Amino acid sequence: MKSGPSTRNGPTDVTPAPRTLFDKIWDQHVIARLPGGEDLIHVDRHIMFELTGAIAFRDIAAKGRKPFSPDLIYSTMDHVISTERRDREAATSEAGRKMIAEFRDGVRRHPPRAFFDLDDPRQGIVHVVSPEQGIALPGLTLLCGDSHTCTVGGLGALAWGVGSSEVEHVLVTQTIRRKKPKTMRITVDGKLRPVTYAKDLVLALLARFGTSVGTGYAVEFAGSAVRALGVEGRLTLCNMAIELGARIGQVAPDETTYAYLHGRPFAPKGPMWERALAHWRKLPSDAEASFDHEVSLDASTLGPQITWGTSPEQAMPIDRLVPDPNSMADPVRREAAMKAVRYMGLAPGEPIIGVPIDVVFIGSCTNSRLSDLEAAAAVVGNRKVAPGVRALVVPGSGLVAKSAEEKGLDGVFRAAGFEWRAPGCSMCVAANGDQVGSGQRAVSTSNRNFEGRQGPGARTHLASPATAAASAIAGCIADPRPLMT
User: Fold this and answer.
1) In the β-sheet with 293-298, what is the strand arrangement from edge to edge?
2) How confident is the model at residue 14 (pLDDT cuts 50, 70, 90)?
């Protein structure tokens, strides 16, 4: 959406057209309009990690290139590292250790503004570290070589994931070529019920609208239920915008955002903070701004959700019955559901509550922040993990772990029989033995439940930290609400 017209003699009296949050940020970052409908966009900040970063450093070395703006680059270790609390590097796979060494070599040759190595207390999952450190900010463009970079749109940033070749392009030019997407607003009004969280909300959106509703769009989440979420809940919501098909998810910044960011290490300070606030307050979508597509949901009708199939959209309220594929009119959905039910070993028409489980994973860039661990610990209380269940808690960063330990949450989990791990992606990407065995069933707070995502033959149910904790205690898929009354 463009501003009103102007002439050589100065602006006309035409009022500028109302614009969305996305349009405002995108247009502020356009360097040039390119042939073929693409724009050349300036990248304000670029955050790297070892998995795609090692490849990019290798490629620029082979071509004799170097980073254009090292002071706009931030780096951490997260994907391939072991989450063992001792000798983490030694416990990492041989391939992972090689990648870590290669990434460190690139960082030594081209020092970024900050690097959170394994011995740094700030180290953690890239999409947890960037908001926590104030690297992601409202109105900034931020890119990273991972599809869940959309997470930090929860702060009002314009962020998306790129591939390895594009990581290299950003490194050496501090720009990206991209065709401007259309805009979508997902409005969620109403008040979330107790023991219902942002993860339940986004799973309900996926169940209602599917995994392709956001394809080709930049999505803004809006409405009273979204505004009522804390920043960490907003990050969870935007994290799974990619599961809705959108590469970009955003929540407009507000006073909740500013309070969260104040004093963060890489956020503006002093007079620059006041200037930043003045700019950020102009970013939210104008009241009359129009979107290319709009959908809505009533949050007050929702309870805890869980996936029953092998796609994030195959989700339902936890107290419902497993769907019967034969009842689905759409032949494509029916075939997909039949395949999913077979793979998951479920019986159509039977309750999903009570299905035995083997593993519980609380972690990932979706649900590994302090509020997630607090929600899980509140369910656990003085209870014990059921015999035969392996249960892991993997904090999203060293600072999350420190805060949780100061609150005694690690003691709650350890006493119950959970493993208290070091920060990293862990079971979300089935790294370093943090896997679900073939045929085993897991309740996971991560974002993807595709066949084999958490290990060959693994059966994954996505849920909130509260639902995951309740299931660990019960030894089967369990509704967390009875444990909170």
Assistant:
1) 248-250, 217-222, 182-189, 293-298
2) low
Taking the C-alpha atoms of residue 188 and residue 296, their distance in angstroms, rounded to an integer, is: 6
Number of domains in the chain: 2
Nearest 5°: the CA angle 227, 233, 235 is 100
pLDDT at res. 13: 59
Of 265, 296, 327, which residue sits at a domain end?
A: 296
Q: Provide the domain limits for residue 370.
A: 307-484
pTM above 0.85, yes or no: yes
Residues 25 and 283 sit within 8 Å (Cβ to Cβ): yes
Cα–Cα dist 449/442, whole Å: 10
> Is 17 a domain residue?
no
Q: Following CA atoms 18, 23, 27, 32 in sequence, which dihedral angle do they give, to the nearest 10 degrees? A: -120
Average pLDDT value for residue range 134-148: 98
DSSP state of 124: B
Those residues whose C-beta lies under 8 Å from the C-beta of residue 118, and which sit 6 or more positions away, are: 77, 81, 88, 89, 100
Alpha-carbon distance of 19 to 282, in angstroms, equals 11
